[in-house]
């Protein structure tokens, strides 16, 4: 048996326990860090070849692992920009160096430029979004992503471009009878304009609708409506497209051409009844805040209550999250054994839902860490005794010459 080997084994054990204490210290220090994932030290034996008459003591080696796939508890906050993921996936964030990383730390707040930035200074990334049209996802990369920016542009007005109008036209009306309803629309400067819809019966199961700008009495468009015997339109969908108006009287604004859906129009034995049309666009209004839904769609909220979708937050995942490479700032990059990064949206595939006004806590258990600390302290002391004993025996051996 080699005394030097005994001492090396003792040192190996002390180094291993020192590494374990280091991960324990890191876990305890980050017990309140949003989205932090617990580190642990795993031990494996080192065996040295031995002869028949002697034994060479080996040692122990360590590997640090992170419980990245283990979700921490969810805590709710009063900030709409605090985000947590209920399920799999990671937020995609951009560092100061322009490189994308993955994180579960969703404590985002707008910075001086309006970008959503978390406590470590990483910027949330997403796709620009148009209502009703999902952006195209680059499944295996970060191309197309942009910073989620909620900077206010002051007063914002949006001109109308499309809407709908439904009505019941009385089947017992005489040819030439006219019924009228109106729809408020918005010009390019957010001024309201009233359009009159004049329905005139032209024959059996036949009507025409004329759209007139009330201010100028200008006819903007007409459409013929024909009905089946059951009172439904013969052709659906039915649309009416108006002409644009430039330099509107008194404002100098423009009114865009409008596409009006008339599909809900019927002809039944009932009095004329407009079902209440709707139109897009809005009058001038200030940004009053924002909200984020469970699908990750980021809306800007105006004082008039209108919600304008701006972005859809992208999520990412890998086949082996625990093999991701931890980086400073509680973020992760792709590791050698983590697998390919796949991007998508909340609520689809293996991606969880996004919780607004919530944060994911650290998955550290303080009681477990304190227990591990006591164990490591005792084991470190025991290994130091092995080293001390080997040193004393070596001293005895040296003193034999005396």
From TrEMBL:
Pfam families associated with the record: Flg_bb_rod (PF00460), Flg_bbr_C (PF06429), FlgE_D2 (PF07559), LlgE_F_G_D1 (PF22692)
GO CC, any one term: bacterial-type flagellum hook
Residues annotated as domain Flagellar hook protein FlgE/F/G-like D1: 84-156
Predominant location category: other
Gene Ontology terms: biological process: bacterial-type flagellum-dependent swarming motility
Compartments, as annotated in UniProt: Bacterial flagellum basal body
Domain Flagellar basal-body/hook protein C-terminal: 356-400
UniProt cross-references to SUPFAM superfamilies, sorted A to Z: Flagellar hook protein flgE (SSF117143)
Keywords: Bacterial flagellum, Cell projection, Cilium, Flagellum
Ranges where the Flagellar basal body rod protein N-terminal domain occurs: 7-37
Record-annotated Flagellar hook protein FlgE D2 domain positions: 179-281
NCBIfam families per the UniProt record, alphabetical: FlgEFG_subfam
Function: A flexible structure which links the flagellar filament to the drive apparatus in the basal body.
Similarity comment: Belongs to the flagella basal body rod proteins family.
Name under which the protein is recorded: Flagellar hook protein FlgE
Organism annotation: Rhizobium meliloti
């Amino acid at each position: 048996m080699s005394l030097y080997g005994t001492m090396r084994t003792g040192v190996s054990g002390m180094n291993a326990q020192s590494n374990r204490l280091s991960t324990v210290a890191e876990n305890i220090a980050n017990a309140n860090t949003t989205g932090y994932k617990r580190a642990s030290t795993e031990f494996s034996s080192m065996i040295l070849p031995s002869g028949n008459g002697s034994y060479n003591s080996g040692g122990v080696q360590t590997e640090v692992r992170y419980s990245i796939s283990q979700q921490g508890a969810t805590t709710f906050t009063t900030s709409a920009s605090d985000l947590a993921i209920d399920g799999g996936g990671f937020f995609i964030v951009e560092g100061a160096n322009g490189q994308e990383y993955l994180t579960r730390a969703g404590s985002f707040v707008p910075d001086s430029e309006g970008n959503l930035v978390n406590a470590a200074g990483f910027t949330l990334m997403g796709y620009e979004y148009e209502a009703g049209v999902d952006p195209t996802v680059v499944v295996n990369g970060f191309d197309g992503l942009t910073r989620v920016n909620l900077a206010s542009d002051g007063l914002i007005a949006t001109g109308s471009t499309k809407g709908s109008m439904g009505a019941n036209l009385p089947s017992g009306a005489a040819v030439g009878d006219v019924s009228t309803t109106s729809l408020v629309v918005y010009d390019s400067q957010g001024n309201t304009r009233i359009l009159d819809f004049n329905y005139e019966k032209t024959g059996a199961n036949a009507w025409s609708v004329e759209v007139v700008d009330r201010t100028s009495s200008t006819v903007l468009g007409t459409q013929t409506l024909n009905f089946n015997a059951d009172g439904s339109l013969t052709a659906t969908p039915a649309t009416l497209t108006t002409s644009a108006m430039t330099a509107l009287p008194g404002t100098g604004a423009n009114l865009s051409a409008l596409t009006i859906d008339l599909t809900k129009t019927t002809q039944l034995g009932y009095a004329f009844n407009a079902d209440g049309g709707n139109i897009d666009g809005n009058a001038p209004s200030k940004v009053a805040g924002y909200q984020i839904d469970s699908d990750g769609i980021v809306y800007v909220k105006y004082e008039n209550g209108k919600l304008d979708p701006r972005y859809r937050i992208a999520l990412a995942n890998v086949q082996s999250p625990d093999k991701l490479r931890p980086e400073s700032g509680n973020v992760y990059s792709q590791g050698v054994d983590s697998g390919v990064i796949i991007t998508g949206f909340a609520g689809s595939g293996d991606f969880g839902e996004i919780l607004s006004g919530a944060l994911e806590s650290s998955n550290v258990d303080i009681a477990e860490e304190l227990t591990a600390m006591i164990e490591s302290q005792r084991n470190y002391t025991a290994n130091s005794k092995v080293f001390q004993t080997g040193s004393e025996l070596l001293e005895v051996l040296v003193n034999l010459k005396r």
